[in-house]
Inverse folding.
């Protein structure tokens, strides 16, 4: 088993454990909505990024079905978005809320940089780390606004 397979399997396990331990039982409906909304965004954006040759995913789970990273685009990022939204510091100051966004977007971007540099899971063609950070911020922001609107929080 190569390092790419280990990373993919670990990502599935860690993301599943995040759902198990960080989603309260009384907010499973909320988690589903956030998860599906984030999947919708990553599906569209992921396909655009791959089709315009901005990013390439040399190691894929479903090579013939989709050129995006199924693990990250359809499972890991949506799970992280669920945790992000369910534990969002909505009653804190705007500065603390911005730091919360900064923390999540930066942590994911740093991990992606290492994955891009040291594995074949992702390859930047016409892409850069700051574009990852910006798209993460926008999708987290959009999912937060949708979540608050939908449940009238």
């Amino acid at each position: 088993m190569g390092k790419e397979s280990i990373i993919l399997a670990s990502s599935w396990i860690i993301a599943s454990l995040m759902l198990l331990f960080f989603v309260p039982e009384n907010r499973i409906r909320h988690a589903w909505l956030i998860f599906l909304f984030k999947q919708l965004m990553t599906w569209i954006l992921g396909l655009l990024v791959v089709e315009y040759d901005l990013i390439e995913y040399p190691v894929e789970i479903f090579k013939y079905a989709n050129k995006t990273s199924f693990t990250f685009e359809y499972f890991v990022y949506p799970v992280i978005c669920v945790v992000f939204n369910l534990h969002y510091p909505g009653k804190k100051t705007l500065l603390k809320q911005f730091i919360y966004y900064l923390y999540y977007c930066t942590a994911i971007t740093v991990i992606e940089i290492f994955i891009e540099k040291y594995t074949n899971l992702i390859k930047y063609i016409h892409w850069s780390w700051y574009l990852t950070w910006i798209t993460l911020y926008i999708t987290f922001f959009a999912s937060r606004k949708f979540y608050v609107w939908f449940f009238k929080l």
The two ends are 46 Å apart (CA to CA). The chain has a mean pLDDT of 95.
